[in-house]
Amino acid sequence: MKKLAIAIALIVAGMATVTAQTADNWRGPERQGIYHETGLLQQWPAGGPEMLWAFEQLGAGFSSPVVVDGKIYISGKEDGTGYIYVLTADGTLENRFPYGPEFHGEGYPGSRNTPAVVDGMIYIVSSMGRLVCMDAGTGRTVWQIDLFNDLDGRNIRWGLTENLLVDGDRIYCTPGGRKHNIVALNRHNGEIIWSSPGTGEVSAYCSPLLVNHYGQNLLITHTKDHIVALNADSGRVLWRYNHENRWDVHPNTPIYHQGSIFAFSGYGQGGVKLRLDSVGNLAGTEWTSSELDNQIGGAVLVDGYIYGSGQNNRFWFCIDWETGDRIYRTRDIDKGTVIYADGRLYCYTERGELALVNPSPQSFDIVGQTDIRLGSGQHWAHLVIDGGVLYVRRGNALMAFNISR
Asked: I need a labelling partner for 372 at 20 to 30 A (CA). Which of 10, 138, 170, 355 fits?
Protein backbone atom coordinates (compact mmCIF):
# COMPACT_ATOMS: atom_id res chain seq x y z
CA MET A 1 0.00 0.00 0.00
CA LYS A 2 1.24 3.40 -0.88
CA LYS A 3 1.87 5.89 1.89
CA LEU A 4 -1.08 7.89 3.09
CA ALA A 5 -1.46 11.32 1.67
CA ILE A 6 -2.28 13.77 4.39
CA ALA A 7 -1.93 16.20 3.87
CA ILE A 8 3.17 26.26 -2.43
CA ALA A 9 4.21 30.69 -3.89
CA LEU A 10 4.53 34.34 -3.41
CA ILE A 11 1.87 36.95 -2.60
CA VAL A 12 0.65 37.73 -6.07
CA ALA A 13 0.95 41.34 -7.10
CA GLY A 14 -1.29 43.32 -9.40
CA MET A 15 -4.93 42.60 -10.22
CA ALA A 16 -4.65 38.82 -9.88
CA THR A 17 -4.03 38.01 -6.22
CA VAL A 18 -4.37 35.29 -3.67
CA THR A 19 -7.30 36.30 -1.49
CA ALA A 20 -6.10 37.32 1.95
CA GLN A 21 -6.97 34.80 4.66
CA THR A 22 -6.50 34.82 8.40
CA ALA A 23 -2.91 34.51 9.62
CA ASP A 24 -3.79 31.25 11.41
CA ASN A 25 -4.05 29.24 8.23
CA TRP A 26 -2.95 26.03 6.62
CA ARG A 27 0.48 26.65 5.01
CA GLY A 28 0.58 30.34 5.86
CA PRO A 29 -1.70 33.34 5.39
CA GLU A 30 -2.35 32.64 1.67
CA ARG A 31 -2.16 28.81 1.92
CA GLN A 32 0.84 28.92 -0.43
CA GLY A 33 3.62 27.87 1.95
CA ILE A 34 4.91 31.44 2.28
CA TYR A 35 5.34 32.99 5.74
CA HIS A 36 5.96 36.73 5.94
CA GLU A 37 8.25 36.66 8.96
CA THR A 38 11.44 38.73 8.99
CA GLY A 39 14.49 38.87 11.21
CA LEU A 40 15.06 35.11 11.00
CA LEU A 41 18.38 33.30 11.18
CA GLN A 42 20.00 33.13 7.77
CA GLN A 43 22.06 30.13 8.77
CA TRP A 44 21.90 27.76 11.73
CA PRO A 45 24.62 26.91 14.22
CA ALA A 46 26.06 23.41 14.27
CA GLY A 47 23.40 21.10 15.61
CA GLY A 48 20.56 23.32 14.41
CA PRO A 49 18.47 26.02 16.09
CA GLU A 50 17.74 26.04 19.81
CA MET A 51 14.78 23.93 20.86
CA LEU A 52 12.62 26.03 23.18
CA TRP A 53 10.32 23.24 24.30
CA ALA A 54 8.66 19.99 23.29
CA PHE A 55 5.19 18.71 24.15
CA GLU A 56 4.96 14.93 23.77
CA GLN A 57 1.36 14.10 24.69
CA LEU A 58 -0.55 15.03 21.56
CA GLY A 59 -1.88 11.66 20.57
CA ALA A 60 -1.58 10.36 17.02
CA GLY A 61 -1.85 12.74 14.10
CA PHE A 62 -0.36 14.38 11.04
CA SER A 63 -1.80 17.90 11.30
CA SER A 64 0.03 21.18 11.86
CA PRO A 65 -0.51 23.78 14.59
CA VAL A 66 -2.05 27.22 14.27
CA VAL A 67 -1.03 30.07 16.56
CA VAL A 68 -3.63 32.64 17.57
CA ASP A 69 -3.25 35.34 20.24
CA GLY A 70 -0.33 33.55 21.85
CA LYS A 71 -2.04 30.15 22.00
CA ILE A 72 -1.31 27.08 19.92
CA TYR A 73 -4.08 24.85 18.58
CA ILE A 74 -3.43 21.39 17.13
CA SER A 75 -5.40 18.17 16.63
CA GLY A 76 -4.60 14.61 17.69
CA LYS A 77 -6.28 11.25 18.36
CA GLU A 78 -6.49 9.28 21.59
CA ASP A 79 -8.41 5.98 21.86
CA GLY A 80 -10.34 6.65 18.66
CA THR A 81 -11.40 10.20 19.61
CA GLY A 82 -10.09 13.39 18.05
CA TYR A 83 -9.07 16.26 20.32
CA ILE A 84 -8.02 19.86 19.93
CA TYR A 85 -5.06 20.54 22.20
CA VAL A 86 -4.63 24.15 23.32
CA LEU A 87 -1.08 24.99 24.42
CA THR A 88 0.37 28.17 25.85
CA ALA A 89 3.32 29.88 24.20
CA ASP A 90 5.73 27.95 26.44
CA GLY A 91 4.30 24.55 25.47
CA THR A 92 2.09 23.99 28.52
CA LEU A 93 -1.21 22.18 27.93
CA GLU A 94 -4.07 24.53 28.78
CA ASN A 95 -7.10 22.65 27.43
CA ARG A 96 -8.04 19.55 25.50
CA PHE A 97 -11.39 19.48 23.68
CA PRO A 98 -12.92 16.37 22.03
CA TYR A 99 -14.53 16.83 18.62
CA GLY A 100 -15.55 13.30 17.61
CA PRO A 101 -14.29 9.97 16.24
CA GLU A 102 -11.07 10.03 14.22
CA PHE A 103 -9.49 7.65 11.74
CA HIS A 104 -8.35 4.50 13.55
CA GLY A 105 -8.43 1.75 10.93
CA GLU A 106 -5.65 0.45 8.75
CA GLY A 107 -3.55 3.08 7.07
CA TYR A 108 -1.87 5.35 9.61
CA PRO A 109 -4.49 6.19 12.27
CA GLY A 110 -4.62 9.71 13.66
CA SER A 111 -5.96 13.17 13.04
CA ARG A 112 -5.46 14.56 9.55
CA ASN A 113 -6.73 18.10 9.65
CA THR A 114 -5.38 21.39 10.98
CA PRO A 115 -7.97 23.47 12.87
CA ALA A 116 -8.95 26.97 11.81
CA VAL A 117 -9.38 29.50 14.63
CA VAL A 118 -11.37 32.65 13.86
CA ASP A 119 -12.98 35.20 16.21
CA GLY A 120 -12.79 32.92 19.23
CA MET A 121 -14.15 29.89 17.39
CA ILE A 122 -12.37 26.65 16.44
CA TYR A 123 -13.39 24.93 13.20
CA ILE A 124 -12.28 21.36 12.57
CA VAL A 125 -13.44 18.55 10.30
CA SER A 126 -12.65 14.99 11.30
CA SER A 127 -11.53 12.24 8.95
CA MET A 128 -14.96 10.70 9.56
CA GLY A 129 -16.77 13.75 8.14
CA ARG A 130 -17.89 15.57 11.27
CA LEU A 131 -17.42 19.34 10.92
CA VAL A 132 -17.54 21.05 14.31
CA CYS A 133 -17.52 24.67 15.45
CA MET A 134 -16.37 25.01 19.07
CA ASP A 135 -15.89 27.89 21.45
CA ALA A 136 -12.11 28.31 21.69
CA GLY A 137 -12.26 29.16 25.38
CA THR A 138 -14.53 26.42 26.68
CA GLY A 139 -14.65 23.76 23.96
CA ARG A 140 -18.45 24.01 23.88
CA THR A 141 -19.90 22.85 20.57
CA VAL A 142 -21.64 25.80 18.92
CA TRP A 143 -22.81 23.78 15.92
CA GLN A 144 -21.86 20.69 13.96
CA ILE A 145 -22.74 19.02 10.70
CA ASP A 146 -22.07 15.53 9.40
CA LEU A 147 -20.83 15.90 5.84
CA PHE A 148 -21.68 12.29 5.05
CA ASN A 149 -25.08 11.86 6.73
CA ASP A 150 -26.50 15.40 6.70
CA LEU A 151 -25.19 15.98 3.20
CA ASP A 152 -24.53 13.20 0.70
CA GLY A 153 -20.77 13.16 1.15
CA ARG A 154 -18.68 10.01 0.90
CA ASN A 155 -15.57 9.09 2.80
CA ILE A 156 -12.34 8.10 1.09
CA ARG A 157 -9.78 5.35 1.54
CA TRP A 158 -7.64 6.97 4.26
CA GLY A 159 -10.21 9.31 5.78
CA LEU A 160 -11.43 12.77 4.78
CA THR A 161 -8.43 15.10 4.68
CA GLU A 162 -9.14 18.78 4.05
CA ASN A 163 -7.87 21.76 5.97
CA LEU A 164 -10.91 23.99 6.10
CA LEU A 165 -10.84 27.27 4.20
CA VAL A 166 -12.45 30.14 6.12
CA ASP A 167 -13.09 33.49 4.43
CA GLY A 168 -15.26 36.12 6.06
CA ASP A 169 -18.50 34.47 7.14
CA ARG A 170 -17.96 31.38 4.98
CA ILE A 171 -16.36 27.98 5.30
CA TYR A 172 -15.55 26.11 2.10
CA CYS A 173 -15.22 22.33 2.09
CA THR A 174 -15.63 19.26 -0.12
CA PRO A 175 -18.04 16.60 1.21
CA GLY A 176 -17.55 14.75 -2.08
CA GLY A 177 -21.20 13.91 -2.66
CA ARG A 178 -22.94 13.80 -6.01
CA LYS A 179 -25.33 16.60 -5.03
CA HIS A 180 -23.34 18.36 -2.31
CA ASN A 181 -19.93 17.91 -3.89
CA ILE A 182 -18.40 21.24 -2.81
CA VAL A 183 -20.17 23.60 -0.41
CA ALA A 184 -19.95 27.00 1.23
CA LEU A 185 -21.33 27.06 4.78
CA ASN A 186 -22.21 29.92 7.09
CA ARG A 187 -19.47 29.69 9.72
CA HIS A 188 -21.77 31.09 12.43
CA ASN A 189 -24.44 28.39 12.20
CA GLY A 190 -23.37 25.75 9.65
CA GLU A 191 -26.19 26.49 7.22
CA ILE A 192 -25.55 26.00 3.51
CA ILE A 193 -24.89 29.22 1.60
CA TRP A 194 -24.43 27.38 -1.67
CA SER A 195 -23.98 23.80 -2.73
CA SER A 196 -22.40 22.72 -5.99
CA PRO A 197 -22.52 19.32 -7.71
CA GLY A 198 -18.94 20.13 -8.76
CA THR A 199 -17.46 17.08 -10.46
CA GLY A 200 -19.63 14.59 -8.57
CA GLU A 201 -16.40 12.86 -7.53
CA VAL A 202 -15.17 12.09 -4.04
CA SER A 203 -12.70 14.47 -2.44
CA ALA A 204 -8.98 13.85 -2.93
CA TYR A 205 -7.16 14.93 0.27
CA CYS A 206 -6.80 18.44 -1.19
CA SER A 207 -7.10 21.64 0.85
CA PRO A 208 -8.63 24.30 -1.44
CA LEU A 209 -7.29 27.69 -2.48
CA LEU A 210 -9.24 30.95 -2.72
CA VAL A 211 -7.94 33.60 -5.13
CA ASN A 212 -9.14 36.93 -6.42
CA HIS A 213 -8.63 36.76 -10.17
CA TYR A 214 -9.24 40.13 -11.84
CA GLY A 215 -12.03 40.91 -9.37
CA GLN A 216 -13.61 37.46 -9.36
CA ASN A 217 -13.26 35.13 -6.38
CA LEU A 218 -12.26 31.65 -7.49
CA LEU A 219 -12.24 28.51 -5.37
CA ILE A 220 -9.75 25.98 -6.73
CA THR A 221 -9.37 22.42 -5.50
CA HIS A 222 -8.78 18.85 -6.62
CA THR A 223 -11.30 16.02 -6.57
CA LYS A 224 -10.73 12.36 -7.49
CA ASP A 225 -9.77 12.87 -11.13
CA HIS A 226 -10.04 16.61 -11.79
CA ILE A 227 -8.68 20.02 -10.92
CA VAL A 228 -11.80 22.14 -10.56
CA ALA A 229 -12.46 25.89 -10.29
CA LEU A 230 -15.70 27.42 -9.03
CA ASN A 231 -17.05 30.91 -8.62
CA ALA A 232 -16.60 31.24 -4.86
CA ASP A 233 -19.59 33.58 -4.54
CA SER A 234 -22.14 31.37 -6.29
CA GLY A 235 -20.66 27.86 -6.47
CA ARG A 236 -20.93 27.77 -10.26
CA VAL A 237 -18.34 25.47 -11.83
CA LEU A 238 -16.13 27.48 -14.18
CA TRP A 239 -13.98 24.64 -15.47
CA ARG A 240 -12.50 21.25 -14.73
CA TYR A 241 -9.29 19.68 -15.96
CA ASN A 242 -8.58 15.95 -15.99
CA HIS A 243 -5.65 15.12 -13.70
CA GLU A 244 -5.67 11.51 -12.48
CA ASN A 245 -3.24 9.35 -10.60
CA ARG A 246 -3.06 5.80 -9.36
CA TRP A 247 -4.62 6.22 -5.92
CA ASP A 248 -6.94 9.25 -6.42
CA VAL A 249 -4.73 11.17 -3.97
CA HIS A 250 -4.06 14.85 -4.70
CA PRO A 251 -3.14 16.44 -1.36
CA ASN A 252 -1.21 19.52 -2.48
CA THR A 253 -2.90 22.92 -2.48
CA PRO A 254 -2.38 24.40 -5.98
CA ILE A 255 -0.09 27.35 -6.56
CA TYR A 256 -1.57 30.50 -8.10
CA HIS A 257 0.50 33.31 -9.61
CA GLN A 258 -0.38 36.07 -12.09
CA GLY A 259 -3.37 34.34 -13.61
CA SER A 260 -1.93 30.82 -13.82
CA ILE A 261 -2.42 27.70 -11.71
CA PHE A 262 0.12 24.97 -11.00
CA ALA A 263 -1.47 21.76 -9.67
CA PHE A 264 0.63 18.73 -8.82
CA SER A 265 0.58 15.31 -7.17
CA GLY A 266 2.48 12.04 -6.93
CA TYR A 267 1.42 8.43 -7.48
CA GLY A 268 2.47 8.39 -11.12
CA GLN A 269 1.31 11.89 -12.06
CA GLY A 270 3.29 15.14 -11.76
CA GLY A 271 2.27 18.75 -12.35
CA VAL A 272 0.52 20.94 -14.87
CA LYS A 273 0.47 24.72 -15.25
CA LEU A 274 -2.85 26.09 -16.52
CA ARG A 275 -3.52 29.58 -17.86
CA LEU A 276 -6.78 31.40 -17.06
CA ASP A 277 -8.43 34.15 -19.05
CA SER A 278 -9.52 37.43 -17.49
CA VAL A 279 -12.88 36.05 -16.30
CA GLY A 280 -11.42 32.87 -14.81
CA ASN A 281 -12.13 30.41 -17.60
CA LEU A 282 -9.53 27.86 -18.57
CA ALA A 283 -7.52 29.32 -21.46
CA GLY A 284 -4.99 26.57 -22.05
CA THR A 285 -2.16 24.39 -20.77
CA GLU A 286 1.20 26.15 -20.50
CA TRP A 287 3.34 23.14 -19.60
CA THR A 288 3.42 19.82 -17.79
CA SER A 289 6.13 18.22 -15.65
CA SER A 290 6.33 14.54 -14.77
CA GLU A 291 9.43 15.14 -12.63
CA LEU A 292 7.96 17.19 -9.80
CA ASP A 293 5.60 14.40 -8.67
CA ASN A 294 5.24 15.67 -5.11
CA GLN A 295 3.37 13.28 -2.87
CA ILE A 296 2.24 15.20 0.23
CA GLY A 297 4.87 17.85 0.95
CA GLY A 298 3.73 20.87 -1.05
CA ALA A 299 5.96 23.24 -3.00
CA VAL A 300 6.68 26.96 -2.98
CA LEU A 301 7.12 29.57 -5.71
CA VAL A 302 10.03 31.92 -4.98
CA ASP A 303 11.32 34.60 -7.39
CA GLY A 304 10.06 32.78 -10.48
CA TYR A 305 11.11 29.25 -9.49
CA ILE A 306 9.19 26.35 -7.96
CA TYR A 307 10.96 24.40 -5.20
CA GLY A 308 9.72 21.02 -4.03
CA SER A 309 10.53 17.33 -3.93
CA GLY A 310 9.29 14.34 -5.88
CA GLN A 311 7.93 10.94 -4.92
CA ASN A 312 9.03 8.42 -7.54
CA ASN A 313 11.57 11.05 -8.58
CA ARG A 314 13.12 11.23 -5.13
CA PHE A 315 14.95 14.52 -5.64
CA TRP A 316 14.51 18.16 -4.69
CA PHE A 317 13.77 20.22 -7.80
CA CYS A 318 14.11 23.78 -8.98
CA ILE A 319 11.61 24.33 -11.82
CA ASP A 320 11.27 27.47 -13.95
CA TRP A 321 7.74 28.85 -13.43
CA GLU A 322 7.51 30.31 -16.93
CA THR A 323 8.76 27.35 -18.97
CA GLY A 324 8.48 24.28 -16.73
CA ASP A 325 12.15 23.49 -17.40
CA ARG A 326 14.03 21.69 -14.68
CA ILE A 327 16.91 23.95 -13.61
CA TYR A 328 18.46 21.33 -11.34
CA ARG A 329 17.70 18.42 -9.03
CA THR A 330 19.52 17.21 -5.92
CA ARG A 331 19.46 14.38 -3.39
CA ASP A 332 21.30 16.28 -0.68
CA ILE A 333 18.37 15.52 1.66
CA ASP A 334 15.42 13.14 1.47
CA LYS A 335 12.05 14.14 0.03
CA GLY A 336 9.59 15.93 2.30
CA THR A 337 7.64 19.07 3.09
CA VAL A 338 8.70 22.66 2.39
CA ILE A 339 7.77 26.22 3.37
CA TYR A 340 9.52 29.58 2.82
CA ALA A 341 10.25 32.65 4.95
CA ASP A 342 12.74 35.54 4.95
CA GLY A 343 14.85 34.31 2.03
CA ARG A 344 15.09 30.69 3.14
CA LEU A 345 13.43 27.34 2.48
CA TYR A 346 12.55 25.20 5.50
CA CYS A 347 12.57 21.52 4.54
CA TYR A 348 11.42 18.63 6.72
CA THR A 349 12.12 15.22 5.24
CA GLU A 350 10.71 11.75 5.67
CA ARG A 351 13.98 10.68 7.30
CA GLY A 352 13.52 13.38 9.93
CA GLU A 353 16.04 15.84 8.51
CA LEU A 354 15.20 19.48 9.23
CA ALA A 355 17.12 21.73 6.85
CA LEU A 356 17.49 25.44 6.17
CA VAL A 357 18.20 26.15 2.49
CA ASN A 358 19.28 29.26 0.65
CA PRO A 359 17.33 28.84 -2.59
CA SER A 360 18.56 30.01 -5.96
CA PRO A 361 18.48 28.79 -9.58
CA GLN A 362 22.21 28.15 -9.22
CA SER A 363 22.21 25.73 -6.28
CA PHE A 364 20.30 24.13 -3.41
CA ASP A 365 22.52 25.57 -0.70
CA ILE A 366 21.92 23.96 2.70
CA VAL A 367 22.92 26.46 5.42
CA GLY A 368 21.72 24.56 8.46
CA GLN A 369 20.57 21.09 9.36
CA THR A 370 19.50 18.96 12.31
CA ASP A 371 17.53 15.77 12.92
CA ILE A 372 14.11 15.40 14.53
CA ARG A 373 14.30 12.50 16.97
CA LEU A 374 11.37 13.16 19.30
CA GLY A 375 7.88 11.98 18.51
CA SER A 376 6.54 8.88 16.84
CA GLY A 377 5.66 7.66 13.38
CA GLN A 378 6.06 9.46 10.08
CA HIS A 379 7.71 12.84 9.51
CA TRP A 380 4.83 14.14 7.38
CA ALA A 381 3.38 17.21 9.12
CA HIS A 382 3.92 20.57 7.44
CA LEU A 383 6.07 23.13 9.23
CA VAL A 384 4.72 26.37 10.72
CA ILE A 385 6.49 29.66 11.52
CA ASP A 386 5.02 32.23 13.87
CA GLY A 387 6.70 34.99 15.87
CA GLY A 388 10.21 33.83 15.08
CA VAL A 389 9.45 30.28 16.20
CA LEU A 390 9.51 27.21 13.96
CA TYR A 391 6.97 24.53 14.94
CA VAL A 392 7.63 20.91 13.99
CA ARG A 393 5.10 18.13 14.59
CA ARG A 394 5.90 14.44 14.51
CA GLY A 395 3.13 12.14 15.72
CA ASN A 396 2.59 12.71 19.44
CA ALA A 397 5.22 15.48 19.72
CA LEU A 398 5.17 19.17 18.91
CA MET A 399 8.53 20.95 19.07
CA ALA A 400 9.25 24.70 19.07
CA PHE A 401 12.59 26.04 17.77
CA ASN A 402 13.94 29.57 18.10
CA ILE A 403 14.83 30.78 14.59
CA SER A 404 15.05 34.51 15.35
CA ARG A 405 18.29 36.40 14.90
From this structure: 10
